[in-house]
Amino acid sequence: NVIPLPGGVELPVKTNGIFQTPPRATMASNILQLPFRRSHTVSLSEAITQYISSKYDQRPDMFAEDLMIIDRLRSEAVNVQEPHFSGVSRLVTYAAQLKWLSGKFPIDVGVEFSWYPAFGFNASRPVSQNNLRFELANVLFNLAALYSQLAYATNRTTADGLKQACNYLCSAAGVLSHLRTDIIPELRTSPPEDMDDMTLQSLELLLLGQGQECFWQKAVKDRLKDVSIAKLAAKVSDFYGDAGDLAVKSNAISTDWIHHMTAKHHHFAAAAQFRQALDCLEKRKYGEEVARLRDCLICVGEGLKEQRWINRTVLGDLTGLRSRVAEDLKRAEKDNDVIYINPVPPKSELKTIERASMVLAKAPSQVTDAISMLGDNGPLGQPLFSKLVPYAVHIAASIYTDRRDRLVNDTLIGELESMTDKLRDLLSSLNLPGSLQALEKPLGLPPTLVSHAEEMRQQDGLNRLHRSIEDTARVKGNDLAVYNEGVELLSAEKAEDLAARRKYGTDRWTRGTSESAAPKLYKSLTEIDGYFTSAQGSDDLVQRKLEDSRSVFIVLTGTNRDLESFVPSSRRVVIPPEVEREANRLRGCLSEVTRMENRRRRRIQALKDKARTDDIHPALLTQTARLEREFPMQPIQASQFEDLFEDQLKLYDSDREMLAQERREQDHLSDQVREANQAFTGSHKGDASTKEREAALQDLENGYLKYKEIISNLDVGRKFYNDLAKIVARFRDDAKAFVHQRRMEASQLEIDVSNATAMASLHISKPHLLQQPQESGRIHHPPSAYSAAQPAQAPPQPSPPVHNVRPAETSPPLTAPQPVRAPVAPPPVSTPSMPGGMPGMWTPEMGIRFGSAAAPPNGTPSTGAGPAPSQPTRAPQPGSWDPSKGLRFS
To answer: Which segments cross the bilayer (predicted)?
Structure first.
């Protein structure tokens, strides 16, 4: 792994090892080229196929050719790793299709795109994201890298070559600018380390500086005026300086590149002053010429401070400029001192050199206006999956369906049913129609009651209710099991995270908690739990209704004999004319109530049919086509169809008016029923048997209504749990995906923490050495232990550090071998050439022995000279080494 620097020099990368030498002979260059990002092969078509199958109504085989093309385009794009112009079309075509797909699919389409960073310390570790925008960002970065490498490979010894290289570098800077301002903000995730704002801005300014340098070089070749060349050079210096300042703030750009930018910044600052000095010479401003040449020499000196890290070409440019400036300065100072004698102004009084910028970060139109170039005759080919309804359109259709269903079911149908229930409650409170039936038919069963009982018998009423309750409970149980599965997954992941947090501590286990990592998922958990709690209350209410009316249901589902036994007969009486008149009036009101209920049932069915045939898809597709034509770069959003929703819902304005009319008619009819019933009860005084018959008939009528009510409640409950099944299944799937992602993160974080802990344990420590009583400092010992004659007052020497100290054993360890010096008399100071050598130096004549290193407590050397006789039979003293026990280090 090497980094190509200007001049063709390849320096080894000591910090990250990310740059790869292009597999070709590189010529001497004074510009840098961006390295390519690399990726693994993934099948985008498989993810799209699965997504279409699960989310769309269309079949994936309708798009078999498009699926094959998208994989081919990606393969061609990610394999662009050579500076050839054919790679531009491959990259821009794939990038255009990715932009187009962003309007058709959500960005998390279901494939993990893995890319290796081009800069930074983690270039060997790929970054993976399930994100189409992340894929697009990497492709555009490689496009910028390709343009920079094309500029690097261009022959810049000719005017045309310099112009072409400048255009390439401006295009590269424009692509990076488009990436930074338009693509990265839409990632919805944190960008990779080498795609943060500081890094991209630094690279963009670097490319602009190199493009400006090409233009400056062309100006020099064309022999433009010195003042014009100075303006160009000053702007080059600014570009490099700003790029270097931003590179220092980046965590990805290597120090070699920063040194290169710094050297170029000072180089072109000097070049600008040099050219301005030549202009001063031409205009006979001899004092200013000297001042600018002196500042030029200072700038060159600043640039030469980077000579350890820059390549031969840049270093040669600096040294050549220094030689030229030194000669001119010597000549200028001599001429001015001897001939012109002009005052030399200080640098603070020199006029700032004007800047002339000749470059602009401009991305190709194939990048900024890519979607408009897709079409039948477009230069970038046909847009893929054009017949697939965009994802935002499906979202918009779902939003409209929800609004329409709420309007129809809750506002219209729900209100109609609520008004009907109020009307039935009114009749029940007035004991109708039981009181009227008891008078009109004192013997036998009323026809309406017989028809109601026959209806319930045909539907197997009571058993039907039980079966419906069991079916609803079964669906509810399945929903609860799926929901609990997701809850258990989240609980297990949360427990694992807390255990790891307790194990490693919050200072090392730095990732967020489970709730903060997935707030929407935990919000769904709470919402679904609320759904179950609310639904349980409704289920209990339905069960109580059934238990309260069970005895009546048994009678209604029995035989006619059971009904006759339940309803007592009263004696036949002669009905007076005034009573018959009020009874007929009340009967007419009840008939009107029946007609109103039948009319509402028909209207409710008509509303359901109207909602079923209300298809907004054609209007959505028409609106989508118009938006894609008018705003090709803007992704389709569901919010763009709000006006269409309002227009479509106007279809139900007439139904809203009908609802208001029904409310007015019911209020009027309710008043009529109350008046007629009051007149009827005032004119009719029944006996006790009549009252009992009225109560029995009313109980059966109320029981039939309660049966219909419970049937409706059970249908609503079953539909609720069927709809909830989709919600809990999605919750469970999201929980599985989240837990899998968190466990992968935890595994990687645990490896990182373990590696950091292992590195931290490799600290430098000093061995514990026994101090000799007769010495004032530590004794320095070489690798082989020895004992030699040594003066008693030898100067202390530091102990070398010992790495990877082994933990202490359970048994007392042996002391490491210590050097023991034989006590000898100190030599005369005036005899430097003594046979024993210099003090503190061992000579072969001293001999080697192992023995006690102890000295008398008073620190005076023991008497005797030469090697002491060995005493193998003596037990080792503390502080001495026993050879029979080997070596052990504590």
So the answer is: none
